[in-house]
Amino acid sequence: MGFGPILTAMVTPMNQSLEVDYAEAKRLALFLTEHGSDGIVVCGTTGESPTLSAEEKLELFRVVKKAVGTRRTVIAGTGSNSTDASIRLTKLAAETGVDGILAVVPYYNKPSQDGLFRHFRALAQATDLPVMLYNVPGRTSANLLPATVQRLAEIPNIVALKEAAGSTDQMSELKRLLPPDFQIYSGDDSLTLPFLALGGSGVVSVAAHVIGDEMKEMINAWQRGDVKTALQWHLKLYPMFKGIFITTNPVPIKALVNMSGFKAGGLRLPLVDATEGEREYLAKLLKEVKEN
Q1: Each residue of 228-237: b (16+ CB within 10 Å) or e?
Q2: Closest alpha carbon to 262 in 216, 224, 225, 210
């Protein structure tokens, strides 16, 4: 199946008591699908998955899928650094009606490539849902290498990869080794256009919370062969692509979502809210990108 070119890794709205605000999650998900997003990733890194309980995650899966219905895909973040726990959550997530799962490379454990292969194989074999692998070595301390992805791609329901190693060389090697229909998504907004040029399928985006329509214009231009216009969009949006990582994700994007009229709320410890200086910088950046 195709997930579509823009999948937004949605923040998890919280109320003043830092409890999950499910009503606001529904409202935000609908907004995103009306402004560039072909699908929503729920409870990924940007959704503060490390500090959410399994019960909160499952309710978010249900609420968001019910909100967007069949119009857009919903991918559930069910991976962790425990294979057994990931399998349990994946099986429960399937009952909520989601369209696929996102499985991150196990963090902290630093498994070998064979350990990674066995982890993802066990997870895929435990579900009929399509599986998107998630490689983000900057957070996990382990890099899922192209040769390992090649082995995993032979498993029928492992169909996609969110690649956030930040390397066009690694992307090139992935495209060289993988079947043509295997979907590779950039895990970095700033590499969306370069990855498309290398045969990528799209982006799992953070920036699309606030510039989803503009990102859709960039991708549409690329898809119709208008490279010049796609590049113009990339250069215009580049300051936002980089600016939302002025500090640890999802701190900046949650601040921007709050500025955009949603009640995204604060963050659970150990993450803390953006500083006054960071908020001023982000507000200025958003204004400049929208006006230019």
Answers
A1: eebeebbebb
A2: 210
Strands 100-104 vs 73-77: parallel, antiparallel or unpaired: parallel
pLDDT one digit per residue (tens) for the chain, 292 residues: 589 999 999 999 999 999 999 999 999 999 999 999 999 999 999 999 999 999 999 999 999 999 999 889 999 999 999 999 999 999 999 999 999 999 999 999 999 999 999 999 999 999 999 999 999 999 999 999 999 999 999 999 999 999 999 999 999 999 999 999 999 999 999 999 999 999 999 999 999 999 999 999 999 999 999 999 999 999 999 999 999 999 999 999 999 999 999 999 999 999 999 999 999 999 999 999 988 7
Smallest CA-to-CA distance from 172 within 205, 199, 193, 154 is with: 199
Distance of CA 90 to the CA centre of its chain: 17
Token pair, residue 47, equals 């959704």
Q: Which residues contact 158 (CB under 8 A, 6 or more apart)?
A: 120, 124, 131, 133, 152
Q: Which residues are catalytic?
A: 134, 162
DSSP per-residue letters across the chain: ----SEEEE----B-TTS-B-HHHHHHHHHHHHHTT-SEEEESSTTTTGGGS-HHHHHHHHHHHHHHHTTTSEEEEE---S-HHHHHHHHHHHHTTT-SEEEEEPPPSS---HHHHHHHHHHHHHT-SS-EEEEE-HHHHS----HHHHHHHTTSTTEEEEEE-S--HHHHHHHHHHS-TTSEEEESSGGGHHHHHHTT--EEEESTHHHHHHHHHHHHHHHHTT-HHHHHHHHHHHHHHHHHTTSSSTTHHHHHHHHHTT-------TTS-PPPHHHHHHHHHHHHHHHH-
